[in-house]
Design a protein that fits this description.
With 434 residues, the protein is an alpha/beta fold. It folds into four domains: 108 residues, 3-Layer(aba) Sandwich (Rossmann fold), CATH 3.40.50.11060; 65 residues; 169 residues, P-loop containing nucleotide triphosphate hydrolases (Rossmann fold), CATH 3.40.50.300; 61 residues, Alpha-Beta Plaits (2-Layer Sandwich). It is built from 13 helices and 15 strands. The chain has a seven-stranded mixed β-sheet, sandwiched between helices. Strands 2-1-3-4 form a four-stranded parallel β-sheet, sandwiched between helices. Strands 13-14-12-15 form a four-stranded antiparallel β-sheet. A hairpin with a 2-residue loop joins strand 10 and strand 11. Helix 5 runs antiparallel to helix 6.
């Protein structure tokens, strides 16, 4: 027998006196996103409502009249969970639970619930737990009387008479410290893997974008990786790296990352720092956008804001290529084309139909080649070790074979040009810089 889903209400408070920017979401679209987020935890949404706020109330965020009206609707619909699409203080959360007579979670709590259900790798689970504990620590407040019961100490937990609240806080602090140590080990392992890629001169291409922009579908289309790709928010949480080959034959790796979202809780930005380190060190960053969404421009700004929190400069970072995805959902006359905007190349694609993928790969190839030096080399056919080295470290752009020599045009990084000259300089017949 299928277990009944929890009856749930989604409330989006909006400030009536805040004048929206031209790229800000409308309250209606923000509520729609909150509903989509809530659906990700598999509940039965009975009520979705905008709540107008003239002046935020310290006790409940929303005004007393609005709280009373909502409480009546919540009781009539027998709702067991209320999701408030806004940050709530611990006091506000407690008071709303008292007034609504059901469980209340805010936007941060909701996103943590989703992440907790979706993280599959040990690293992802540790990162989610760290964020959840950091959040939970802020919820331990003196006004929660059930945490104030006195208990005798066990010595290792605390002194005699220590309150349950203090014990809970101490246990949380200890667990946070242990998780941070474990994540440090994960980061060290990741750093070694990354160093191997760098030493092997394997370029890294990182995908970033608003959640549900189609990153995982694009990742699958390009790498045939079979990563979960669903029309839902936060379908991908754990970082995935796969090898791929560009049209020139050059090998590189692509990394799919967690989707960004507006008002991403700071606990999660910090907790997923290790995951997002792939972006910081990437050779190419593909910013995947949902071109068919009315919120595309606002989502772009949210992604760029998160990138700034990571220490990147999205306005001037020349590694960024904007990928305008889902053009198959747009009328032909509205489809964007490859253009350069603010120094960033933009490529229109459909990860579902494959439209524009070849163009995107050529743009990536060209961008990576621009980071390399093109040289001409003549090899003797017996120089198999030198030829193998060039295949491993460079990109063979042209090859001519005769009985006397193999003439190559090769793209190499400046570092590898130096290594080539040091290792094989005496053996080559000619080298010309272009």
């Amino acid at each position: 027998m299928t277990e009944a889903k929890t009856a749930t209400a989604v409330l989006h408070p909006w400030h009536a006196h805040v004048r929206p920017d031209e790229h800000d979401r409308t309250p209606e679209s923000a509520l729609q996103e909150a509903v989509a987020l809530t659906q990700a935890i598999d509940v039965d949404i009975k009520l979705a409502e905008l709540v107008r706020i003239n002046q935020p109330t310290p006790a409940t965020l929303m005004g007393g009249g609005a709280v009373q009206t909502l409480a009546e609707k919540i009781a009539a619909l027998e709702i067991k969970l209320v999701v408030v699409d806004h940050a709530l203080t611990p006091i506000q959360q407690r008071n709303l639970e008292r007034d609504f007579k059901c469980k209340v979670i805010d936007r941060t709590g909701l996103i943590l619930e989703i992440f907790g259900a979706r993280a599959n790798t040990a690293e992802g689970q540790l990162q989610v737990e760290l964020a959840a504990l950091d959040y939970q620590r802020s919820r331990l407040v003196r006004s929660w009387t059930h945490l104030e019961r006195q208990r005798g100490g066990f010595g290792f937990l605390g002194g005699p008479g220590e309150s349950q609240l203090e014990i809970d806080r101490r246990l949380i602090e200890q667990r946070i410290a242990r998780i941070r140590k474990e994540l440090d080990k994960v980061r060290q392992t990741r750093a070694l893997q990354r160093q191997n890629r760098i030493s092997n001169q394997t370029p890294l291409i990182a995908l970033v974008g608003y959640t549900n922009a189609g990153k995982s579908t694009l990742f699958n289309t390009i790498t045939q990786a079979g990563v979960l790709a669903k029309d839902m928010l936060f379908a991908t949480l754990d970082p995935t790296v796969r090898q791929m080959r560009l049209p020139s034959g050059r090998s590189c790796v692509m990394s799919d990352t967690v989707g960004f979202i507006s008002s991403l809780p700071h606990q999660l930005v910090a907790a997923f720092r290790a995951t997002l380190e792939e972006v910081e060190l990437a050779d190419i960053i593909l910013h995947v956008r949902d071109a068919a969404s009315d919120e595309s421009e606002a989502q772009k700004l949210d992604v760029e804001e998160t990138l700034r929190e990571m220490g990147l400069d999205p306005e001037h970072d020349e590694r960024i290529i904007e990928v305008l995805n889902k053009v198959d959902l747009m009328p032909p006359d509205e489809r964007p084309f490859v253009v350069t905007r603010n120094g960033h190349e933009r490529v229109a694609v459909s990860a579902v139909t494959g439209e524009g993928i070849d163009t995107l790969l050529q743009v990536i190839d060209r961008r990576l080649a621009a980071q390399r030096e093109i040289i001409s080399i003549d090899l003797h056919p017996a120089q198999g070790d030198a030829l193998a080295w060039l295949h491993r470290h460079g990109n063979i752009l042209r090859r001519e074979d005769t009985d006397e020599h193999i003439r190559l045009q090769v793209a190499l990084s400046p570092e590898d040009v130096g290594r080539w000259q040091h290792r094989f300089g005496e053996k080559k017949s000619a080298q010309e810089n272009h």
